[in-house]
Amino acid sequence: MTETQPPIRRGRGRRPAAEVREQVLAAAGELLLAEGMAGFTIEKVAARAGASRMTIYKWWPSRGALALDGYATKVRTVLEFPDTGDIEADLTAQVLAFTHLLTGTGAGKVIAELIGASQTDSELSSAFRERYSAPRRALAVEAMAKAIERGQLRDDIDPQVVVDQLWGACYHRLLIPDEPITDEFAKSLVHNVMLGIKR
Amino acid sequence: MTETQPPIRRGRGRRPAAEVREQVLAAAGELLLAEGMAGFTIEKVAARAGASRMTIYKWWPSRGALALDGYATKVRTVLEFPDTGDIEADLTAQVLAFTHLLTGTGAGKVIAELIGASQTDSELSSAFRERYSAPRRALAVEAMAKAIERGQLRDDIDPQVVVDQLWGACYHRLLIPDEPITDEFAKSLVHNVMLGIKR
Question: Which of A11, B55, B57, B83 to pair with B181, CA 20 to 30 A apart?
Answer without folding.
Answer: B83
